[in-house]
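Q: Hi! New to this. If I give you a protein sequence and the SMILES for adenosine-5'-triphosphate, can you show me the bound structure?
A: Yes, paste them in.
Q: Okay, here:
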Amino acid sequence: MNKVVVKIEMSGNRYNAYDTDGNKYTSKIGTSTRRSAFVKGMALEKREGKGGRTYWWKVPMSEFEATSIPVIDVSSIDVPEEHSELLNFIHSSFKLKPNGLVMRELKWKYLVRSAVRGKNILMTGPAGCGKTLAAKSVINALDRPDFYFNLGATQDPRSTLIGNTHFEKEKGTYFSESLFVKAIRTPNAVILLDELSRAHPDAWNILMTVLDEGQRYLRLDEADGTETVNVAEGVTFVATANIGNEYTSTRVMDKALMDRFIIVEMDVLNDEEEHGLLTYMFPHVDSTLLKSVAEIANSTRVESRNESGRLTGGISTRTSVEMAGLLYDGFGIDEAAEVTVYPQYSDDGGVESERTYIKQLVQKYVSDETSDDLFGEDEIEGSYSTGS
Ligand SMILES: Nc1ncnc2c1ncn2[C@@H]1O[C@H](COP(=O)(O)OP(=O)(O)OP(=O)(O)O)[C@@H](O)[C@H]1O
Ligand SMILES: [Mg+2]
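A: Thanks. Here is the predicted structure of the protein with adenosine-5'-triphosphate bound:
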């Protein structure tokens, strides 16, 4: 039987008992037992006495903590030692997440787990939501040899992924292999394939066999298929794809290629999370200003998700970080928006345009900011238009 240990928490005037999974045991334990455990700061363990009578015995709080996920079942379900280490690593890995990366615990742990399990990982999400940052962070956390390739920026996939054939008078023709070849030959390497969705289709074709569980080799010569390089033991691929969570994958990337990955979808931050990030990054900027930035960004995201909404896309976290940086350097919200946000929205359609919509949205926060100086604002506006 599984050991049951509960902790007592006080809510109102009740002493509630919960185990580490959050199951409630309050009604199974006498009030005075619960109260006394609470007062002494101890946990209660369920025990069986003579004749099968159960009772609850006070035990140190560490007994309760010991029943929480990473450690529990290890003894009772006979997990091999290596596996228990792995379990511990995965479930305590949230502390390896850098504070500057906002990502929910489950997602982060899934990412770490997939990496240590040697899966091919594809991080998806809209532009500027932290895909590259998260991929780099998990690679840092793993303490394994790492390699970075930005496939969105390569003009010539063959030379980046395979290598070049050279000719020199003395040596004749020879082949110099790419850094990518070196990377896949390195046991336990973690290889970041950034912006895979923007890569040349030739790159996708070359990667097809590399990423296939059953093949895991790179063909050095596409034409006759003679020489191949095998992907070394333990190599993990982490790719990023600029695919909005709302899109179906195949629209942007080849279905067969997508199928070779497990998908980790980056969540777009809500306004609270974004405010938290901005405050963490810019502790010296007035928090209410940062809140406005977070709220503006969030409203655009909500609006763009809305079918009858006026915006086709939302402001990315990358952009709100830029806005906050401008606030830090003494610009106003309206100025920051004018240079970073407005250019992202078309002014086709005049007053019906996305640009007008976003300006009005930002304006709400600007007037908030200077509510006691509204007339001054109007005058400035007025003098602008007459001056031009
Ligand atoms: N979840 C997040 N946590 C912390 N910072 C973030 C997050 N998302 C975005 N940022 C900020 O935005 C910047 C851009 O993030 P990143 O380069 O990871 O985006 P991306 O999803 O890879 O974008 P793209 O699709 O354009 O490649 C980061 O440097 C960081 O300042
Ligand atoms: Mg990126």
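A: Residues 100-103, 125, 127-133, 195, 240, 242, 269, 277, 317-318, 321 surround adenosine-5'-triphosphate (ligand 1) (CB under 6 Å). Let me know if you'd like me to explain how to read the tokens.
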